[in-house]
Write a sequence for this structure.
């Protein structure tokens, strides 16, 4: 009996040792693969915006936490409301773990909206996580004379937009159609840096985009009290402007509310870093682990706080789930959106 127990114990110990050895071997293989490598962070925006600044910031700490300590470099690829970068990552980027990216929060939604040009399926990207949940907002400068969304129903105000595929266009256009605002949307600005310059140059007085970027890109606007938040494009109010309504609460039509709820939950995607489909499972796991460790690194947290960057780890699982939710949502919702914004 004792002999049998000894055999069982030895077998169990041998299995554990083999398993542990296998895990160690995999870790060694990953470190060996990434040593002296460069990992591209494809940014679906031009330089100067929030996504670019966050990507530059995390690059240093991803190097610290990734096995093999590869160098992370940013590669800006703005255009077509994020679709250009999404198509590249999905179809052309390296699938060996040396290419990751950060897409726009509305990239999954855009994949269902656009009838041409989309060459990716949003939920087939592998989400790695995020470091904040950037809520969207309808923002104007005080010089516009607009203080509320009710005011915007009576007086026209120019909104700067990067293009018809982005939230900077779709959300103001939906607001006009759903609740009767009079936003005049001017497209063609090169990324959010171009949008901010348009406001600096008085070519426009407002925009709809991520609220946290205002603090990052134009902190003096807030310090000088020049900004008015008309509404939050989020399922919850902005912590910096808790009295501003949410866009969802202003919409009365039940179908339209479903559309707005779907879009408003995009803050989960927010600043989500992703890997393309086809990446080896072990390297994907290593990237996700490194991302989490990076986001929870006290040194990174302190540095982000010093730079006044919003910084709270967002796990990849709810990001993946929301991307799947949009990918599988009823096509009637998107037909309705296309009709409201006059998009064929």
């Amino acid at each position: 009996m004792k002999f049998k127990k000894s055999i069982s114990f030895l077998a169990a110990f041998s299995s554990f040792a083999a398993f542990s050895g296998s895990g160690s071997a995999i870790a060694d293989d990953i470190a060996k693969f990434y040593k002296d490598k460069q990992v591209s962070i494809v940014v679906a925006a031009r330089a100067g915006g929030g996504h670019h600044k966050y990507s530059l910031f995390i690059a240093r700490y991803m190097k610290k936490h990734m096995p093999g300590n590869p160098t992370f470099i940013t590669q800006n690829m703005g255009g077509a409301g994020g679709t250009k970068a999404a198509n590249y990552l999905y179809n052309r980027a390296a699938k060996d773990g040396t290419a990751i990216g950060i897409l726009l929060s509305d990239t999954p939604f855009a994949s269902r909206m656009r009838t041409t040009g989309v060459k990716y399926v949003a939920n087939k990207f592998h989400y790695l996580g995020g470091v904040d949940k950037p809520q969207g907002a309808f923002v104007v400068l005080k010089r516009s004379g607009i203080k509320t969304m009710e005011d915007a129903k009576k007086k026209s105000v120019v909104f700067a937009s990067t293009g018809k595929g982005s939230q900077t266009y779709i959300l103001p256009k939906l607001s006009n159609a759903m609740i009767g605002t009079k936003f005049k949307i001017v497209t063609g600005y090169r990324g959010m840096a171009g949008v901010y310059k348009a406001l600096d140059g008085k070519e426009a007085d407002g925009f709809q985009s991520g609220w946290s970027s205002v603090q990052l890109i134009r902190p003096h606007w807030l310090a000088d009290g020049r900004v008015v938040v008309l509404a939050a494009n989020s399922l919850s109010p902005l912590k910096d402007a808790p009295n501003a309504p949410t866009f969802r609460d202003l919409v009365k039509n039940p179908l339209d509310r479903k559309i707005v709820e779907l879009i408003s939950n995009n803050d989960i995607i927010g600043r989500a870093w992703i890997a393309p489909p086809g990446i080896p499972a072990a390297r994907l796991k290593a990237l996700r682990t490194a991302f989490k460790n990076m986001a929870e690194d006290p040194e990174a947290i302190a540095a982000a706080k010093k730079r006044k960057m919003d910084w709270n780890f967002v796990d990849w699982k709810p990001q993946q789930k929301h991307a799947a939710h949009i990918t599988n949502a009823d096509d009637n919702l998107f037909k309705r959106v296309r009709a409201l914004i006059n998009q064929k």
Observations:
- The radius of gyration is 23 Å.
- The beta strands are 38-43, 71-76, 99-102, 126-129, 136-141, 157-160, 183-186, 206-210, 227-233, 273-275.
- Residues 25-132+270-338 form a domain with the D-Maltodextrin-Binding Protein; domain 2 fold (CATH 3.40.190.150).
- Residues 2-34 form the longest helix (33 residues).
